[in-house]
Write a structure and sequence with these properties.
heterodimer; A: about 425 residues; alpha+beta; Rieske Iron-sulfur Protein; Naphthalene 1,2-dioxygenase Alpha Subunit, Chain A, domain 1; 2 domains; 7-stranded antiparallel beta sheet; 12 helices; about 25% strand; globular; B: Nuclear Transport Factor 2, Chain: A; about 25% helix; binds FE2/S2 (inorganic) cluster; binds fe (ii) ion
């Protein structure tokens, strides 16, 4: 067909069906974005850092979850706890540094305490308020330490030592229940021995968080990457499958990477993670915005923090085994960074593609259909790696959480389903 | 001028020459300023994870493999240009080797990274840090033995994987 006029452009192309595309407004509309923050990001479990970032008692990390300031602290009892990083007095942020230790005193406060610098209220590592400056003078018996503990958050250390947090006290699932089996493919490898983060960088990218998640979920974009054009496209590659789990998570099954096809790459055999067959690759796209990628010798984890409809912060971590010798660690770092580091061969291509993708979907731009209708099956009828089942599975979960139909977000999920049935 | 002064000046000159070659993507010319045992690394310290990180490293041949493959990648082609200032050049006692510390800021001038209609031509600082270089000499001329790019910047947005 030749290029289309406006009316033709507006029509659903070919025999693509409802449920095989989304409306571009879900990537750009501010109201939908705000709804995602309140209906999804404030409700779910998310990993926020790794336990190796808080290696000693009294060490802490700070971050935000759905715009709320959060602090993760290791107590004297070695227990990791999470709190809102908000002072119950006048709402100051208690700790401003990204990481550090409360072992030493701060200018306003005593050692081994969290101290809000503003008026020097102090808290212990369990979040109890232990000191109100001139408390009885100012509040008499109207307010006591026991009235103003920090807001604690549910927190679990799970799956290779990631620290998981939720703002939702009422969540009825543990992290494991929320994962719904998505970690089965790599749990044994992650839990065999303690892990350690050796790589961290972040990027703030002008795109919606879902576009990054899509890119992590679809392998059809092999064509973008020189590395994949050279190493992929063999039978074992296409034997890889997308498996959907409850709650919108997807697992992309294992296959062997042909590193020797690519100049400048050695095999990852020698340092494969425990229980991971040589040169194999397992990946989890975790709803709504996390990716775990275990590829031979290194684990990568992307955590997305949406900052706006067209703005996302992605934190990239690389992990190896805590028991690594310096030489082994260097090799893992190289393996990780040569592809996924900020100067690696693939990452910049992915970041470029999602930026130029979002560039056509600015707020109030004409809506478009963004297709994910590939059904590509192998001889057994199982979806191959170029099937777009992963994205369809994600958007099905997204639509239910949002009660909006991804293909037309003005419809409720049920209305969309009815239209699809019709 | 003393031999030491001559050599120190020559070291500054070769750092500036390398800056121009990197600005102009003359990768071979850059690598030809380097010894065959040259080692290159981009490093950064992350307070988040309390760890000295290596973002990229390689010897001269590995760097050449990377730069030879640059045209095969889909890159943000926005030019990166650097402002380099050589702070110190120190000769060792034998006058056979030198170390130098330079400060640099790399600017990106947008070309095709997002929406070129609106953004092409805009310049922003892309990253900042220090070059820590080691040199040897042949016939009085310095050549790079090592370059450690120590980045201050750890928020590294969409860019490229060009050596810095
Ligand atoms: S706001 Fe924290 S002590 Fe006053
Ligand atoms: Fe990719």
């Amino acid at each position: 067909m030749p290029a289309r006029n406006a009316k033709q452009w507006d029509k659903i192309p070919g025999k693509i069906e409802s449920g095989e595309y989304v409306d571009s407004r879900i990537y750009s509309d501010r109201n939908i974005f705000e709804e995602e923050i309140s209906k999804i990001f404030k409700k779910v479990w998310t990993p926020v850092c790794h336990e190796s970032e808080l290696s000693e008692p009294y060490s802490f990390r700070t971050m935000t979850v759905a715009r709320e300031p959060v602090m993760v602290v290791r107590g004297a009892d070695n227990q990791i706890r999470a709190f809102l990083n908000v002072c119950p007095h006048r709402g100051n942020m208690i700790e401003n540094r990204p990481s550090g230790s409360f072992e030493q005193g701060s200018p306003s406060g005593a050692p081994k305490h969290m101290t809000c610098m503003f008026h020097a209220w102090q808290f212990d590592m369990k979040g109890n308020c232990v000191h109100i400056s001139r408390g009885s003078e100012g509040y008499q018996d109207r307010l006591e330490c026991s009235d103003v503990g920090l807001r604690r958050l549910r927190c679990e250390v799970k799956y290779g030592g990631f620290v998981w947090v939720t703002l939702n006290d009422a969540i009825d699932q543990t992290v494991e229940e929320w994962a719904g089996g998505a970690f089965d493919c790599m749990e044994k490898s992650l839990n065999a021995e303690p892990l350690e983060v050796f790589h961290y960088h972040k990027a703030i990218i002008p795109c919606n968080y879902k576009l990054w998640h899509d890119t992590n979920s679809e392998f059809y974009h092999d064509y973008l990457h020189y590395h994949n054009r050279i190493t992929g496209f063999n039978d074992s590659y296409f034997a890889r499958k997308n498996i959907g789990f409850d709650n919108g998570h997807v697992n992309v099954g294992s296959f062997e990477v042909q590193y020797d096809q690519y100049e400048g790459f050695e095999s990852r055999e020698e340092l494969s993670f425990p229980h991971l067959p040589n040169n194999h690759w397992e990946m989890i796209d975790f709803f709504p915005g996390v990716n775990f990628n275990l590829r031979g010798s290194a684990l990568r984890c992307d955590i997305m923090t949406p900052l706006g409809p067209d703005k996302v912060m992605i934190e990239f971590r690389g992990l190896g085994l805590k028991s690594d010798t310096p030489e082994e660690r260097l090799i893992r770092q190289r393996h990780h960074n040569s592809i996924w580091g900020p100067f690696g061969r693939n990452l910049h291509e992915d970041l470029l593609a999602v930026s130029t993708q979002q560039a056509t979907m600015s707020e109030f731009a004409d809506k478009r259909r963004i297709l994910h209708g590939r059904h590509e099956v192998d001889a057994d009828g199982d979806p191959t790696i170029h099937d777009e089942e992963g994205m369809r599975h994600f958007y099905d979960a997204w639509g239910r959480w949002m009660d909006r139909w991804p293909g037309d977000p003005e419809l409720s999920f049920e209305e969309g389903q009815k239209r699809e049935a019709a | 001028m003393s031999e030491s002064m001559n050599k120190q000046n020559a070291v500054s000159n070769v750092i500036y020459k390398a800056s121009l070659f990197l600005d102009e993507h003359r990768w071979d010319d850059w690598l030809n300023l380097c010894h065959e045992d040259f080692y290159y690394a981009i490093k950064a310290f992350s307070p988040e994870i309390n760890y000295d990180m290596i973002y990229m490293d390689g010897n001269r041949e590995e760097m050449r493999t990377i730069t030879d493959m640059l045209p095969k990648h889909n890159s943000d082609n926005s030019p990166l240009a650097r402002h380099t200032v050589v702070y110190t050049v120190e000769m060792d006692e034998s006058q056979d080797t030198a170390t130098a510390v330079s400060s640099f800021a790399v600017y990106k001038t947008e070309l095709d990274g997002i929406n070129s209609h609106a953004l092409a031509g805009e310049s922003n600082i892309f990253l900042v840090g220090k070059y820590r270089d080691k040199f040897g000499f042949e016939n009085g001329e310095p050549f790079f033995m090592e370059r450690i790019v120590q980045l201050d910047t750890r928020r590294l947005d969409k860019g490229s994987h060009f050596p810095i």
